[in-house]
Design brief:
Helix content is 46%, strand content 16%. It contains 29 helices and 21 strands. The longest helix is centred in the last third of the chain and has 23 residues. The chain is globular, with a radius of gyration of 29 Å.
Length: 730
C-alpha cells in the first residue's frame, strides 16, 4: 500500500472505492490518470482481482499504452492480460471472435478512409449522382454523422423524401451500407455500431463479457457519444462496477457527436453511483486557477467544483488590448523575447487560438523576429495545400512558362484533365522546346489527344487567358479574389460541405489578408512583387529541426497538454466565443468550456490579448472584446501600457491610412444592445434574421444581459443572449 501514501484524500477515496458505480469528476491538472492506474493496481494487488477481469477504455492508443506502463511500474503483473484500449480496438476484438452471430464472416475487412472513398465512388456511379453536386468527402462526412447519431438510411430517406438532394444522400447511404455488407467489410463507425449490435442480439456473448469484466474503466467520459454509452452500459450490467473519469467542464467535442449528458446524468443512468470530485490542481498557480474558476462558473451544464492548489499565488494573468491584429502578433513576439531574457525557453511557450486561420500573422511575426515555431495539429500557413494551390495559380498567371505551377493547377479542382493527357502535352512541348502552356494553347494540333481531352482543356485555357489579361487591370487583392472565384476552387470546396473543406476555405480567404496588408504597405507594387514577398515568407527557416520551438495550436489541439507560459490570443466577440455560438446557449457554454481548457493549459504565466481591429479573410473589421473577458473580472490584470505607445507593427497614422484605403471592406464596430432599452416580456413576438418569427417563452436576468428562450415557428426552441441576438419586435 506504499503507493497510496502519495495520494491526496480525494484521490485515496477514489482508489479505495471498489464496489458499485463511481464517477470521478476530475478537474484540469488534478491527476486523473494517476488515480485510475493506482485504482487498477489496488484492485489487483489487494482485492484479488485478476488482470483478465479488468477492462479499461481510453480515447487513444497512446493513453492506453501509458496506462499499462504506469500499472506495470506500480505492481509486478502481466498487464497484457488486461483488455485496455480504445472503443474501436475493444470492439474489433469482440467482433473478430463473434461477428458470425450477426451475419458477417470472421475474416471481415476494416475499411480506412481511402477504401471508403473508393466505395462511395462506386455508389455515386451506380446511382448516377452528379460529381459536381455530390462530393465524396461530403457524402462520407454525412454518412458518418448519421451513423453516430443512429439514424438509419430508411429513416433518413423517409424524413427527407420531398427534398431531392437529401433523398439522394439517403440513397447513397443505403447503397454504401449494402455494399459494405456484401463485401463483408466494416468502416470505423461500424466497428462501434456492430459491437453494440452484437451485445444486444446475442445474449450468450453479452453474458460472457459481463461476467468476465468485473471492473470497467472509461477515461474522458465527457467525450463519449450515444453508441459508446450504450456499449459500456451493456457491459457493466452484471457486476455494476463501472468507474468513469472525466470533467464536464472540458466537454468540447459536440461537433464530433460527443454527448455531455452522458457524464451529467451518470448518477441517473447508474443508480447508487458515488461521485468524487478531484479539485486539487497540480499544474497551475492560484492566479491562473482563479481565472478558470471565474469563467466556468457561468455555465449551467456542469457538476459544480472549484479548482484549488497549494502552489503560491504566482504572477497575475495579464490581459492586453491591442489596436490591430498584426500588432497583436508583434506584441506577442516582443513579449517572448522578454520571457527568453527572463530564462524561459521557447519550448515552454504556447500560442493558443480559436481557429487555425489565426496562425498566419503570428507565423509571419515569428519569422520576422527569427523565433522558431511549430504548428501542432496542423500545417504552417504557407505549407497548407490550399494556400500552395492558390500561390501556384498566381505564379503561373505571372509566368506562363512555369511548368511546375501549371501541372499543380491544371486539374485542381478536377476538370477531367488526367495524367495521360498532361504527359502527351509535355511530350509535344519537349519536341518543340516550348513550355507546357504552349501545348495547352496548341491542343487542337496535338493528334494524340482525344476530343474529350481537348474539350476538358479548353475551359481551363480560356479561363487562364482571361485572368492573364485582368492581371494588368486589377489590384493585387481583388485579382487574387477573382482568381479564387473564376477557377472554381472555392465553389468546389463549398460543394464538399465538410468541416475540413470549411477550414480550407477559411485559409484561402485569409490569404486575401496577406495581399491586403502587402498592398497597404506597398501601394505601387505588382503581382510579381507580391509573389516574391510570399516566397520569402514561405521559405524562411524550413530546415529548423530544433525541439526548442514555440508551440502554436488551436485550443482543441491543446487539450491534454500543458506549458509554463500560455498566450491566449484573439479574445474577441465573434472569434472567441465564435459567432455561431451567439444564437445558442448550448454552443455558448461549449465555447466557455473551451476557454476554461485554454486557461488551464498554463502552469506559471497566462497572457491574454485581443485586437480592436482585425484583418481576417481579406477584410478589416472593428471588434469588441470577448464577453469571456468580462466574466474573468478582477482575476485579470489589465495591461494598459500599450495604449500609451505607438502600435508595435505600425504607426497609428499608417493604420488610419490603411483603414481609409480599405474603406469598402471596413465593417462598422458592432454595438451590444442595452437590454434595458428593449421592451420585452413573456409572450412578446419577435423576428430573428436567421430563424424567422417566434415568441418569447421565458426570460432570465444574467448580469447586465437577458437570456431569452424563444419558440420559433419553424426552428423549434432556441436560447439566445438578448444583447447580441439579431431580434426585432413584431
Amino acid at each position: 500500500m506504499d503507493y497510496i501514501k502519495g495520494l491526496n484524500d480525494r484521490q485515496k477515496e477514489a482508489v479505495l472505492h471498489t464496489e458499485g458505480p463511481l464517477l470521478i469528476m476530475a478537474g484540469a491538472g488534478s491527476g486523473k490518470t494517476r488515480v485510475v492506474t493506482h485504482k487498477i493496481a489496488h484492485l489487483i494487488d489487494h482485492k484479488g482481482v485478476s488482470p483478465y477481469e479488468i477492462l479499461a477504455i481510453t480515447f487513444t492508443n497512446k493513453a492506453a499504452n501509458e496506462m499499462k506502463e504506469r500499472v506495470a511500474n506500480l505492481i509486478a503483473v502481466d498487464v497484457d492480460k488486461m483488455w485496455m484500449g480504445t472503443f474501436h480496438s475493444i470492439c474489433v476484438r469482440m467482433l473478430r471472435r463473434d461477428i458470425e452471430k450477426i451475419g458477417y464472416d470472421k475474416n471481415f475487412s476494416i475499411y480506412d478512409r481511402d477504401d471508403q472513398k473508393t466505395l462511395i465512388k462506386e455508389c455515386m456511379k451506380e446511382l448516377n449522382l452528379d460529381k459536381e453536386m455530390y462530393k465524396e468527402n461530403g457524402l462520407l462526412a454525412k454518412i458518418g454523422e448519421l451513423k453516430n447519431t443512429q439514424v438509419t438510411p430508411d429513416e433518413y430517406i423517409n424524413d427527407n423524401y420531398g427534398d431531392f438532394r437529401e433523398r439522394n444522400i439517403g440513397e447513397a447511404y443505403a447503397l454504401y451500407q449494402k455494399k459494405l455488407r456484401f463485401y463483408n467489410a466494416l468502416d470505423f463507425d461500424d466497428l462501434l455500431i456492430k459491437g453494440v449490435e452484437l451485445l444486444k442480439t446475442s445474449p450468450q456473448v453479452l453474458k460472457r463479457y459481463q461476467e468476465r469484466f468485473k471492473h470497467i474503466f472509461v477515461d474522458e467520459y465527457q467525450d463519449t457519444n450515444k453508441v459508446q454509452y450504450q456499449f459500456v452500459k451493456l457491459l457493466s450490467g452484471y457486476h455494476n462496477n463501472i468507474c468513469v473519469v472525466g470533467d464536464s467542464d472540458q466537454a468540447i467535442y459536440s461537433w464530433r457527436h460527443a454527448d455531455i449528458t452522458n457524464i451529467l446524468e451518470f448518477e441517473k443512468d447508474f443508480p447508487g453511483a458515488k461521485v468524487i470530485l478531484l479539485e486539487q490542481n497540480y499544474r497551475s498557480t492560484e492566479a491562473i486557477l482563479k481565472v478558470a474558476n471565474q469563467v466556468i462558473q457561468k455555465n449551467t451544464q456542469r457538476k459544480h467544483k472549484n479548482l484549488w492548489t497549494d502552489k503560491n499565488e504566482g504572477s497575475s494573468a495579464v490581459y492586453t488590448p491591442l489596436d490591430y491584429s498584426e500588432g497583436e502578433a508583434f506584441f506577442v513576439a516582443k513579449k517572448i523575447h522578454h520571457l527568453m531574457y527572463k530564462g524561459y525557453k521557447l519550448k515552454d511557450i504556447a500560442i493558443l487560438y480559436r481557429t487555425n486561420v489565426q496562425s498566419r500573422p503570428f507565423e509571419e511575426a515569428f519569422m520576422a523576429e527569427e523565433l522558431p515555431y511549430k504548428v501542432i495539429g496542423g500545417l504552417k500557413f504557407y505549407d497548407r495545400r490550399e494556400v500552395k494551390d492558390i500561390i501556384a495559380y498566381l505564379k503561373f498567371i505571372q509566368n506562363p512558362n512555369d511548368n511546375i505551377a501549371l501541372k499543380r493547377i491544371i486539374n485542381t479542382p478536377k476538370r477531367g484533365i488526367g495524367k495521360a493527357t498532361i504527359e502527351k502535352m509535355e511530350a509535344y512541348a519537349e519536341e518543340r522546346n516550348e513550355s507546357l502552356y504552349s501545348a495547352v494553347l496548341d491542343r487542337e494540333k496535338i493528334d494524340v489527344l482525344s476530343s474529350r481531352a481537348k474539350n476538358s482543356i479548353s475551359p481551363f485555357a480560356d479561363s487562364m487567358n482571361i485572368l492573364m489579361a485582368k492581371k494588368e487591370l486589377m489590384g493585387i487583392k481583388e485579382f487574387i479574389k477573382e482568381t479564387m472565384e473564376s477557377t472554381g476552387y472555392i465553389a468546389d470546396l463549398e460543394k464538399e460541405g465538410t468541416i475540413e473543406a470549411r477550414t480550407r476555405i477559411e485559409n484561402i480567404k485569409d490569404f486575401l489578408s496577406v495581399a491586403l496588408i502587402f498592398e497597404q504597405k506597398n501601394p505601387e507594387s505588382t503581382l510579381e512583387d507580391f509573389l516574391a514577398s510570399v516566397s520569402l515568407l514561405s521559405d524562411v527557416d524550413k530546415t529548423v529541426e530544433d525541439d526548442n520551438v514555440i508551440s502554436m495550436m488551436t485550443v482543441h489541439s491543446a487539450k491534454g497538454l500543458e506549458f509554463p507560459v500560455v498566450f491566449l490570443v484573439g479574445m474577441e466577440e465573434g472569434l472567441f466565443p465564435i459567432s455561431r455560438a451567439m444564437d445558442s446557449l448550448e454552443e455558448l457554454e461549449e465555447e466557455r468550456r473551451l476557454c476554461y481548457v485554454a486557461v488551464t493549459r498554463a502552469e506559471e504565466q497566462l497572457f491574454i490579448t485581443s485586437a480592436k481591429a482585425r484583418t481576417l479573410y481579406g477584410r478589416t473589421d472593428y471588434t469588441i472584446p470577448s464577453s469571456f473577458l468580462d466574466e474573468m473580472g478582477d482575476t485579470l490584470e489589465i495591461d494598459k501600457s500599450e495604449e500609451k505607445k505607438k502600435e508595435i507593427a505600425k504607426d497609428p497614422l499608417e493604420v488610419k491610412r490603411s483603414m481609409e484605403y480599405n474603406k469598402d471592406n471596413f465593417i462598422p464596430k458592432p454595438i451590444r444592445k442595452k437590454t434595458s432599452d428593449v421592451p420585452i416580456s413573456v409572450g412578446t413576438k419577435v423576428k430573428h434574421e436567421k430563424f424567422g418569427n417566434g415568441m418569447i417563452v421565458s426570460i432570465e436576468e444574467v448580469n447586465d444581459d437577458k437570456k431569452v428562450r424563444i419558440a420559433f415557428d419553424g426552428g423549434g426552441l432556441k436560447t439566445l443572449m438578448l444583447s447580441m441576438a439579431p431580434l426585432t419586435i413584431i
